[in-house]
UniProtKB/TrEMBL annotation:
Residues 162-181 have a biased composition (Low complexity). PANTHER family: PHOSPHODIESTERASE YAEI, TRANSMEMBRANE PROTEIN WITH METALLOPHOSPHOESTERASE DOMAIN-RELATED. This is Membrane protein. Residues 108-181 are annotated as: Disordered. Keywords: Hydrolase, Membrane, Metal-binding, Transmembrane, Transmembrane helix. The keyword DNA damage does not apply. It comes from Streptomyces lucensis JCM 4490. The chain crosses the membrane at residues 41-59, 71-92. Residues 234-396 form the Calcineurin-like phosphoesterase domain. Residues 143-152 have a biased composition (Basic and acidic residues). It holds the Pfam family Metallophos. Its cofactor is a divalent metal cation. One of its GO terms (molecular function) is metal ion binding. The lineage of its organism: Bacteria, Bacillati, Actinomycetota, Actinomycetes, Kitasatosporales.
């Protein structure tokens, strides 16, 4: 097993290295002169970027000192989306490159055809043939005043005679050496590389700003057949994937809390992946969660990242913050049942999801809302007669085209879907894992408004 893991790791590293080389070649080697400062600087960036990215990942997963994680996180994690979008932009540039070559070739040809045409000037007349030999002057002298003894010699700078007897102009002095004009290939490479770099930096910059400013509020109405009329309009604020860690800290947690409280929900559901780190390192960052406010309280279920960070200690910590953990448990609210199951990752610790424990013995006439971190748990929810499952986990793909990968592993990537008699809502999450960047999958806090369908 270890050998297989090592071979897979080597293969992945080889692919990553090859892709970095390709992007370096297009952005650096093809646009700079060998030995120049620009090439050395560009090469240094493409060596440092993947090295910092690897170091940041290893530091987070190995539990390195938190100060070291924070030092490596910003440059290391931001290199991930930057490298991705540089690659995509360079690949797109391959389609543009031949078109630019063709356009520049046509421009150059058109410029050459115009030389000497329609200039408004007459072409100079051809030179008249002169008799062979120097013209005669006064006796004893040639026309240039030289004495007879110098006749037959040529003063410096005198044009030589061509074979047909015409004089040729003296050679022009050599132009001083300088930087040669860039070739058409170099011009095209620089245009494509500049556009690719600009697009990638703009995408990452905008996506990072979108995360750091905090999530936006989405509102979704979900009709439930078994919901009583008295519960019509009941609002649940769904928060997932906050991912407090070396980048997103206490200030970000406060922005999320302020966003949730501003919706004035009846109930708050935190559906996993709250943190990426230990209580020791991130306890202060999570402290603002104590200010979450809802009439029927705030509830919490674990996500897969809690088990990477120490699920037991975090369950105890959120309880001290005023959130109620639902560990394969159910509570009866005035109008419906609210249940929660552990994340699938808990199976590695013998604390996986237990739907029978959470849902067995309940009144089947009452509506049931289930909190489960991963959308893939919907199939068990359907089997147990759940009306609505609230999930996160996917981040909506986080970085396009990550949604394609997420769709391959999850029944629903984002939004509301129906599976039999059970509805599933998946939020894109409030934060971001790894790079604090989202492209094509904006962060959100979703307010689910329950609607009764019976009179």
């Amino acid at each position: 097993m270890v050998i297989v893991f090592a071979l897979v790791a080597v293969a992945v590293l080889a692919v990553v290295a090859a892709l970095h080389w390709y992007v370096w070649r297009r952005l650096v080697r093809d646009t700079t002169r060998a030995g120049g400062t620009a090439r050395r600087a560009g090469t240094a960036v493409f060596l440092a970027g993947p090295a910092l990215m690897t170091a940041a990942l290893v530091a987070e997963r190995s539990g390195a000192p938190f100060w070291l994680q924070r030092t490596l996180a910003w440059p290391g994690f931001l290199w991930m989306p930057l490298a991705l979008y540089l690659l995509l932009a360079v690949l797109a540039g391959e389609a543009v490159r031949p078109l630019l070559h063709r356009a520049l070739r046509r421009r150059d040809r058109a410029g050459g055809d115009r030389v000497g045409e329609d200039s408004g000037e007459e072409s100079p007349a051809p030179p008249r043939r002169s008799p062979v030999g120097p013209p005669l002057g006064p006796p004893g002298r040639v026309a240039d005043g030289r004495p007879p003894e110098t006749r037959g010699t040529k003063p410096p700078g005198t044009p030589t005679l061509a074979a047909e007897g015409r004089p040729t102009a003296p050679a022009a002095p050599a132009a001083p050496a300088g930087n040669p004009a860039p070739t058409r290939r170099l011009v095209v490479s620089r245009i494509v590389a500049g556009a690719a770099a600009t697009a990638a930096v703009a995408a990452v910059g905008h996506g990072t700003y979108g995360v750091l400013r905090g999530p936006r509020v989405k509102r979704v109405t979900v009709p439930l057949t078994r919901l009583p009329r008295a519960a019509h309009g009941f609002r649940i604020a769904v928060v997932s994937d906050i991912h407090l860690g070396p980048i997103l800290g206490r200030d970000f947690a406060q922005r999320v809390v302020d966003t949730v409280n501003a919706t004035q929900p009846d109930l708050i559901a935190v559906v996993g992946d709250l943190v990426d780190g230990s209580v020791k390192d991130l306890g202060p960052a999570a402290a603002p969660l104590a200010r979450l406010s809802a009439r029927h309280g705030a509830y919490f279920v674990t996500g897969n990242h809690e088990y990477f960070s120490g699920a037991e200690q975090w369950v105890a910590q959120v309880r001290t913050l005023g959130l109620r953990p639902l560990e394969n448990a159910r509570t009866e609210l005035p109008y419906f049942d609210l249940a929660g199951v552990n994340d699938l990752q808990g199976e590695s610790e013998g604390r996986g999801p237990d739907f029978d424990k959470a849902l067995a013995g309940r009144d089947a006439a009452r509506a049931c809302v289930l909190l489960a971190h991963q959308p893939v748990q919907i199939h068990e929810a359907v089997r147990h007669g759940v009306d609505l499952q609230l999930s996160g986990h996917t981040h909506g793909g986080q970085l396009w085209p990550g949604s394609i990968v997420a769709a391959a592993a999850n029944p629903t990537v984002a939004g509301l879907d129906r599976y039999g008699d059970t509805q599933l809502y998946v939020t894109r999450g409030a934060g971001a894992w790894g790079p604090p960047t989202r492209v094509g999958a904006p962060s959100d806090v979703t307010v689910i408004e329950l609607a009764a369908t019976r009179a």
